[in-house]
Amino acid sequence: MSNLDVICEKIHDGHGPRWERGGICVACVAEMMDRSDISAVRKRAALVSVMRVDAARELLYCEEGRRVNFTSSLLKTLFSAVDSSLLDQTVQVLLQVTLDVPNQAFLLFILDQIHSRWTDGQKASLSSLMFLGKLLDAHPALSQTLTSSRLCVLECVCSALLVSDEDVKAAVCYVLFRIWSFSAAVQTLPDTLRQRMCVLLLHTLSNTHTTALTINCLGVVKQMCQFSDVVCVLMNLKDGGEDPLPYQPLPLILKKLLLSAQESLQVVSVRCVCAVLILAPLRFSSSFIQADLPEFLLEVMSDGCSDVLLWSVFSCLLLLSEDPLFFSQCHAVYGVEPLVRCLKETLGKSNTEVQKQGLKLLTTILDRQPAVVRLFPTGSEFSAVCDVIVEGVASSCLQVSMCAVRAAAVLLRPNHQSSPLQLTDIKRIVEVVMSKITEHHHTRSRESCSGSDSGTAGVLLQTLTCFDAACRLVEACVCDSALMDSVCSAQETLESVCVFLLHCCDAACIPAVTGVCERISSPQVLQLFLSVLSRQFSLCPDHMTSFSRKLATSGFIRLTLESKAQLCSGNRNASLNQICCDFLLKLCMCLISQEHTRTSELQDVECVLQDSLPSLCCCASDWPSVLSDFPQSLSNTQHCLIYLLHLSLLHGDRFLSDLAVFSAVLRFVSCVQDLPASVLSSVLYLLSVTQHAGPRLDTVSVSVLSEALSSCPPLFSRALPLTVLSFIFMYPELSERFGAPALTGRLSEETQEQELLELLHTHPAALLATLAVACDAESAASRSAVGVLQCFLRSADSSSIGGTSDLCDRIRSSLLNVLQRHTHTDGLSVLLDVSSVIHSSGQREHTDFRLLYHVSNLVGKLDSSDSELLLSVFNFLYCFLSVCPSHATDRAVCLLLGNVRLLELLEEVLSASSSSSSSLQCSSLLLLSSLTLLQHKHTAQVNRSVSVDLHQIIRRLAFSKRHTDTLLIKCSVRFVQVCLDVDASALLCVCDAALQRPLTSIDGALHPIGHSGATSLMTALSALMLTTQDLMICAALNCLRSLMGFLRRRIPETAQHMLFSHRPHPVKSYRHKLWSYLQYFLFNCFSLSTLNMLQHFFGFVYLSAVSPLLSLADAQADCPLQLNPQRVVVRYGDSVAANCSTSVQHDGMGWEASEGAVPLTRNQSLITWRVSEVTEWDTRPYCYMNYRTDNNYQCDVLLPVTVYKTPDSVSINTVNHSGPMMEGQQYELQCDVHNVAPVQYLTVKWYKGQTLLHQTTFNDTIKTPENETVTLLIRPDRADDGAQYWCEAELDLGAEGPQPHPKNSSKPLNVEVHYKPQHSGSTETIIKDDEATLDCTVKANPAPAYTWDHLKEKSSSSVLKSSTLSPGDYTCTATNTLGRDSKVFIVKSAGIRPTF
């Protein structure tokens, strides 16, 4: 059976075919809707069929009467049908009809039909109300019709709220919701009906029993709360228990719903509260607060709920917290503990919206909480909220993180701190906030888009606000004793937190802010940043010296002044201007106080800066013109500019070119009189450091400057910089008048002597001024001058001082004047030393003998306790005699020998050798040697002899040379040589108490040294010839020559036999020992220069004199033993073997050694010394052989054994430095070689890449393993960026050692060098065309940022196309953290060619 059969059964006979469409009879469908005998199933099937066939619907709609009749039938079915499926289908067909026929009259017809049926006694059924609700969904504008022309229908709908059926009420609420959702309908709704609706809704909510009705009803209320007048009506309806329609107030209803266990009701009720509060939070929040709604909201939060409810609760509490009543009456109820616990759980989830809302609520509560009530009385509660904030800041969502940062900024207020103060938690918050700003800064630095700059500035502003709050809190603790006493010292100290804040500011804030400020100008960010920097001066005063220098060298003076000029000119941003001035004042005063300025001057400088900085908002390019104006009102401003230029140049920051500064300052000082000492000091510094950029000062400028200096005596009471001193000594007119006073001020302060050495070497006039200060009255400056001159004398040679005859004359005159005044100061000794050096330069005039006379007289006034002055006098006299011409030496020696006190002092010093200094003894021996030779040469008269214990000097050479200064040994050898050369001198009285009485014939012949003295001297000289010092060998050989001459003169027949006769010895003869010494000396110890000296001093005659001594060694002196190998090099722990053989008859041979000794063996001509594992570092094996002679003579040969060990490790590092290096600064590299032996064969080589830089050898003869440390000073430049430094330890053990030489290398040290931008040229001319570009690219580390001046639009690119630019000058500035450099591009049109 088809659908047509089912629909048309029993009723289709009267219908023609014109009613059929798509197999459906439209007439049957229309007719059966009115018949009661048709089943609901057939009616529903018919309606479904009509809805499926469009042609059938068109046939129903084509005539208005047919459409109206069909609609009436449907409405009748809607009110009369019981079957729910039929009702649903009827509603769908009715809605489709209204959509298919969009006719306002037709809609009004439907409304009228519904109203007529409601008024005819049929109640508002659920189906009719549901249809009306869906009709309003399909036609929203119909809501306005209901509230205007068809208000009667709406009144009937409202009356349906009084029925008992809650499903009907729910449908009514839906209809009302649709009406209140259409704002135009609400505007035409009468006030009476509004009032009635409010009462009916409150009555319904007060008596509802189903969740659906409650939710629908609250939905209507929430929608109604979007209109302020309706909110007033709802909230003003009090308890209506006595009204015909009893109801409860809205706050009480919502509170009851919060207590329900259904989360959906809780969500809707909370949103209703929010809807009320959004329009007028301060007007209606008190009603909810007095109803204890916050308490129930916090309970809901504590019980755990969904994200939807939690977000709603957070939002509601945010609105309630705008009312002060929330805090004044409910603080004991709401508490912050539930919120903290809830946030702790929420931050562990992924819903960032809930996290943001909760953190906003926490921020609001912390911000508006009255200060009298503490939220966190205990440390544990404060730590709990800190945990939440730290976790929030560390969130990967930037918005959540910033909400937590804002909460942290409020939490760090003093009124929220617990007792005791939890510094550890505060430090944790700051640390995570700083890590966030660093992370964000690095992320944005890698992004190329510039659109994120505003967002970056916002993030930076929030984090700086938090950091500033932390600094404020710690500053309050430092200043407030009550807060300081409450600090929890068991965890962190206040000082450590201050240092931590300073580190965060240096490591995180400064890089981030400077990076943002290079791209955009943000007054808010800059103001907060400078406020943070200013607070560091009060937080860490002990660290401000280094921190202020770092700020100055990083260009913060220039940055602040440029920001003032850009953002604060024209009375803009007054608060920023004030912060800039405060920061500059603190920074400048900290820098100036480091220059040892007096307190009164510091106060004057501070007053000038305080007065001038607020109004100083001009660009740096305008400063020269300001310095050139001379009204009295600008004096403080000009002084302020001078101070700022001084400080900036002092720390490597340049506002202007050196030429501009030099010219402006020179004009300033030329036109201004009576400058304060501090200003004049800055002027001198600026002129001195910019002198190279300008011309040399002319006579007029020098005269003006000299007049300014003479009018300011206090200037020289301070320590002037070395550059200023160099500037003064550059001009003779200035150095003559002000050189000595300027040095006095410098030397009065504690200064390093090395600092002035370069000045003395560069400017000879400075040496004379230093001598003048040293010879002045006893003072700290004179003592410092003496120290400087002594250091200078140790570093300078004679030619550096004596090269200028005029300077030498002036120094001699100064010495003569001092001696004539008979002044005895510390400077006299150093002046004598300088004069000694001058005499050694070979320049002698008639004033020398006048000096000699006065110095000789000075000796008569001295005592042996005046060791320092006595040393200078002896040195002067010795130098004088050494360089005195031969024709004048008789005059000089007679003058000195006539000074009995001089000879007494020489005797006292030499007799008290144990108490006299080594230097004084050396000078005494040398002077006495010269006097003795000259007296002997000229047979000068001697008024007093000098007693000398020559045997004591020889004993010192023979037995105490290891404990005696090397120079004293040389001087002693020289004195002994003189004594041997002159034989007997009237000046010397040599003590012979060491000789036995009565004297033997040989002692008498060798008087006064005797046989024992000659023997001891020979032994001592033999030992000295084995040293490695050429001068020592030369002195020993000279003395040996004199000894030979002395012996030949005294005992020519027996001298050789007496000295070299056989000496009883069980192993070897004395002659063999001497031969061994000389052999070792001649073939192993002599360098080429020493051999040349040997020939020069002795020649063939002396060698022929030595040869008879060697010939005395008979054939037995040459031990006939051969070693194979002749030298052994073995690694520690390895095996070693060596053969010893002979070709002569013997009475036994063997090896004497601490390891592997071979006992005496006969009848063998070859024996082997063998050790399987060498465990001794200093092993000395001897192969010996007994001759077959009557005296049992034995000879032996030493096998040289070198035991070596390669290093365990070789490492390289930097000393007292980590991180990148700065260009131009000096750094020290250290190479550590661990456990190597022997170090005398070790060479440490330094490499940069594959280039050898330096190598170091060692003279230590220790055999056992040692640790050696070698350092290398480097001053890297930009070419060294990325270079690799490494060191290598090499053991060069000779030909017998391993080949190639053992080498151990360190790991390479990669060097990163930071350097500022520097263009190859300052200007470039570009001819404008399609190909030419303005290329400003420059190498720098860190990578530079580029800015262009004179462009219409800002650009950060380093390359611009010339075709897009107009002719003109374009300045490109490349900037990084170390500095900036600019280049000017001159763009010309194609028709203009550059001229050269």
TrEMBL record:
It holds the Pfam family I-set. InterPro entries: ARM-type_fold (IPR016024), ICAM_N (IPR013768), Ig-like_dom (IPR007110), Ig-like_dom_sf (IPR036179), Ig-like_fold (IPR013783), Ig_I-set (IPR013098), Ig_sub (IPR003599), Immune_Signaling-Apoptosis_Reg (IPR052133). PROSITE patterns: IG_LIKE. SMART domains: IG. It comes from the Eukaryota. Residues 1207-1306, 1308-1385 form the Ig-like domain. One of its GO terms (biological process) is meiosis I. This is Ig-like domain-containing protein. It comes from Onychostoma macrolepis.
